[in-house]
Amino acid sequence: MSTGNETLAGRAIGMSELAQYQPGSVVSRTLIDKKIGTITLFAFDEGQGLSEHTAPYDAFVQIVDGVADITIDGQVHRVAAGQMIIMPADRPHALRAVERFKMLLVMIRA
Predict the structure, then answer these.
(1) In a domain, 1, yes or no
(2) Which residue, among 109, 92, 88, has the nearest Cα to 54 in the 3D structure?
(3) Residue 58 belongs to a domain with what CATH number?
(4) Which SUPFAM superfamilies does this UniProt record tie to the protein (predicted)?
């Protein structure tokens, strides 16, 4: 499956450049989309987020810029640039931008 990101392969590029902040919005860019999993970069404006949901796979989140509150099973974790957190499969989680932030989401389906 093509994601339109072939130009990214084999090059060094600043991850933060791949998704830009937009006022009042959440922007995402899928970097890899394969049957086995996905890698997606998100940019959240301050106050934006994702409502509580579950996923059938563990999700690795790396904060690239800014600060987010990530809630897992009702417990809030403040995660800042340079930090990561794993959101376990089948456990409710939500995200909210304390300040605008960018995150890399890695989901492995196998």
Answers:
(1) no
(2) 92
(3) 2.60.120.10
(4) RmlC-like cupins
Structural domain contains residue 83: yes
CA–CA distance from 16 to each of 53, 71, 103 (Å)?
Answer: 26, 23, 9
* CA-to-CA separations, 47 to 4, 38, 90, in angstroms, rounded: 30, 25, 25
pLDDT in tens, 4-59: 566 778 888 887 788 999 999 999 999 999 999 999 999 999 999 999 999 999 99
Per-residue pLDDT tens for 13-26? 887 788 999 999 99
DSSP string, the chain: ---S-GGGTT----GGGGS---TT-EEEEEEEEETTEEEEEEEE-TT-EEEEE--SS-EEEEEEESEEEEEETTEEEEEETT-EEEE-TTS-EEEEESS-EEEEEEEE--
**What is the pLDDT confidence band of residue 3, given thresholds at 50, 70 and 90?**
very low
